[in-house]
Amino acid sequence: METKKILPSLVCGFGAAVLTIVPGIKNIGCCLIVPLAAFMSLFLDIKVNKSLPPIDLKKAFAFGILTGIFAAFFSTFFDVLMTFISHSNDYIAALPQTESLMKTYGLTGPLFDQTITMLRSMAKQIQTNGFSPLYTFMIFITNIFIDFIFGIFGSLLGMSFLNKRIQH
Questions:
Q1: Longest Cα–Cα distance in the chain
Q2: What is the pTM assigned to this prediction?
Q3: What is the pLDDT of residue 55?
Q4: b (16+ CB within 10 A) / e for 115-137
Q5: Cβ proximity of 68 and 148 under 8 Å
Q6: What is the separation, in whole angstroms, between the first and last Cα of the chain?
Q7: Rounded CA separation 69/6 (Å)
Q8: Is 130 helix (H, G, I), strand (E, B) or coil?
Q9: What is the pLDDT of residues 122-153, one digit of tens each?
């Protein structure tokens, strides 16, 4: 793919990542912001590259994947950066409730103890160093998976909407 074709996905993925670090908006990032970013990347591609409609499925799918990947990469970067600066994040705040919930459901035993030890170790690394490699990896994998799916979903809806709008 040429740079002109990647640029709309890069810009929209970056914009989605910036919005997903804002408290309050962060909770709707995956299911609203990323699909809208994928839709906008298709729209920008039409405007910038003067692409002729209709948008085909392959193109919409590619823009959804690219926008999702860029959003995941940048949102992970911003999350890790904010964690590094503050030595705290949502994970640190939610860890006591997670432990309590696991105990409430009777999840005890050696596997539970190892899991809690690992979770506490990640929290301690974040609080002392501002960085945990395992936390970064887990956040990145989670973001890739979620943003990838919602990016594709948004671009396919965007393709349908733009194709109908252009035909009428």
A1: 63
A2: 0.88
A3: 87
A4: ebeebeebbebbeeebebeebbe
A5: yes
A6: 30
A7: 12
A8: coil
A9: 999 999 999 999 999 999 999 999 999 999 99
The SS3 call for residue 150 is helix
Tell me the DSSP string of 40-89.
Answer: HHHHHHHHHH-PPSPPPHHHHHHHHHHHHHHHHHHHHHHHHHHHHHHS--
Q: How many CA atoms lie within 13 A of 96 on its CB side?
A: 1
Residues whose CB falls within 8 Å of the CB of residue 156, separated by 6 or more in sequence, listed in order:
57, 60, 61, 64
* Cα R_g (the chain), whole angstroms: 19
- 138: how many CB neighbours lie within 10 A of its CB? 14
pLDDT band at 2; cut points 50, 70, 90: low
DSSP class of residue 22 equals: S
